């Protein structure tokens, strides 16, 4: 359908079913085991209610916020989560998403397993030094650490990345059966992403493995021995703020909050693609409120998983998130439409977030708090 007919994120998800190749669709939409966490990520939001206040002058509302202290503001409490292999959605790939994120004034986090090299993704920014757009880089530490070190050096050299997001919830590949079933079209997938190995730092592989699905083949080479004390190593290799992605319990959030090397906490279950029946990020936020409230407000908290509506974003912010990521939604927006589709996806969320703030009676992102949500239905979970 024409782009203007796409009214919400579900519309994009639906049309992506027709524009993506069967293999890309299986890889993007798949999640672990029985998809319980994947489905709960979205459905949990229907069990959290908003508490709108009325008779408040809402002519002036600002969605602007700062994701990390001292960093340039983001036009929205929203960012693009790292997702591998964007070229499977559209030839413009991660660079296409970058264009959209830039025009919308939000941060994009580039995956360790992007289908383009970091230099390719930021080529337009390198060509125009006056362009203020910045990105984040997501890291999977490789068993051969020198590969990760070399990649970090390249990231630094571009001067365009302002944070490193260390993903820790996929220390073992989730069992994504939809991805694993469609083995025979992997060659086509590899054709769509000839450079993924360059940005993954795996080495010279030019094609994806033909067994076990894309997810498992991308996992090859990852360091399974990584522990908290390795953050000292990462600190020694980068001066950028380090964000830990994939926190799923209040206990780990406390460890991250207390760790001097950690600048931000990123609550995520990998879009339900790693541990099935792991909790949605909003439940981890509720755990924090209950068991470790001292953490809230200490360091920035990022969340993702299942975001389909502006109200979903607002609920996360009310429960303590600084900003909220979208994973699949950006890929679906890119599919069939290129950068314009991602731009419209962000624009839709912008209108929903801004409209939601008006109906809630708040003027700024900072004003959103637990008094704006009713979590009675999920408090016992
Ligand atoms: C991901 N995700 C992910 N995360 C990460 O840290 N590194 C990665 O390379 C990837 N790759 C990836 C590929 C695809 C196809 C998907 C769908 C997801 C997880 C991603 O960052 C994010 O946590 C989830 O996608 C959020 O859930 P939603 O928004 O997709 O529901």
TrEMBL record:
The keyword Translocase does not apply. GO terms for cellular component: mitochondrial intermembrane space. Its EC number is 1.1.2.3. It is an enzyme of class 1 (oxidoreductase). The keyword Oxidoreductase applies. Residues 1-378 form the FMN hydroxy acid dehydrogenase domain. Its cofactor is heme b; FMN. Keywords: Flavoprotein, FMN, Heme, Iron, Metal-binding, Mitochondrion, Oxidoreductase. It comes from the Eukaryota. One of its GO terms (molecular function) is L-lactate dehydrogenase (cytochrome) activity. Signal peptide: none annotated. It is found in: Mitochondrion intermembrane space. Its main location: mitochondrion. It catalyses: (S)-lactate + 2 Fe(III)-[cytochrome c] = 2 Fe(II)-[cytochrome c] + pyruvate + 2 H(+). Homotetramer. In the C-terminal section; belongs to the FMN-dependent alpha-hydroxy acid dehydrogenase family. In the N-terminal section; belongs to the cytochrome b5 family. This is L-lactate dehydrogenase (cytochrome). The lineage of its organism: Eukaryota, Fungi, Dikarya, Ascomycota, Pezizomycotina. The chain holds residues 119 to 499 of 516 of the full protein.
């Amino acid at each position: 359908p024409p782009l203007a007919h796409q009214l919400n994120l579900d519309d994009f998800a639906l049309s992506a079913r027709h524009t993506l190749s069967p293999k890309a669709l299986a890889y993007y939409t798949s999640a672990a085991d029985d998809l319980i966490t994947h489905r709960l990520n979205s459905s949990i939001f229907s069990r959290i209610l908003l508490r709108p206040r009325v008779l408040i002058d809402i002519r002036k509302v600002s969605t602007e916020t700062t994701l990390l202290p001292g960093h340039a503001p983001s036009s929205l409490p929203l960012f693009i989560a790292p997702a591998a292999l964007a070229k499977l959605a559209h030839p413009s790939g991660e660079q296409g998403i970058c264009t959209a994120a830039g025009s919308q004034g939000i941060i994009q986090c580039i995956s360790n397993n992007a289908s383009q090299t970091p230099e390719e993704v930021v080529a337009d920014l390198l060509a125009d030094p006056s362009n203020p757009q910045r990105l984040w880089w997501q890291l999977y530490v490789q068993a051969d650490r020198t590969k990760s070190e070399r990649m970090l050096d390249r990231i630094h050299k571009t001067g365009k990345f302002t944070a490193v997001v260390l993903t820790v919830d996929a220390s073992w590949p989730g069992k994504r059966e939809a991805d694993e079933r469609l083995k025979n079209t992997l060659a086509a997938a590899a054709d769509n992403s000839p450079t993924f190995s360059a940005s993954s730092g795996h080495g010279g592989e030019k094609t994806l493995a033909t067994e076990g699905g894309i997810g498992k083949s991308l996992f090859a080479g990852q360091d399974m021995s990584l522990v908290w004390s390795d953050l000292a190593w990462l600190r020694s290799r980068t001066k950028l703020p380090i964000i830990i992605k994939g926190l799923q319990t209040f206990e780990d959030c406390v460890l991250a909050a207390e760790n001097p090397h950690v600048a931000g906490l990123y609550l995520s279950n990998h879009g339900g693609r790693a541990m099935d029946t792991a909790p949605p990020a909003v439940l981890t936020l509720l755990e924090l409120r209950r068991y470790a409230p001292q953490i809230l407000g200490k360091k920035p908290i990022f969340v993702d998983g299942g975001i389909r509506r502006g109200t979903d974003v607002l609920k996360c912010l009310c429960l303590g998130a600084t900003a909220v990521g979208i994973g699949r939604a950006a890929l679906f927006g890119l599919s069939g439409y290129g950068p314009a589709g991602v731009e419209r996806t962000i624009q839709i969320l912008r209108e929903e977030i801004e409209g939601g703030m008006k109906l809630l009676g708040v003027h700024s992102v900072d004003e959103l708090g637990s008094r704006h949500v009713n979590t009675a239905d999920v408090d016992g979970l």
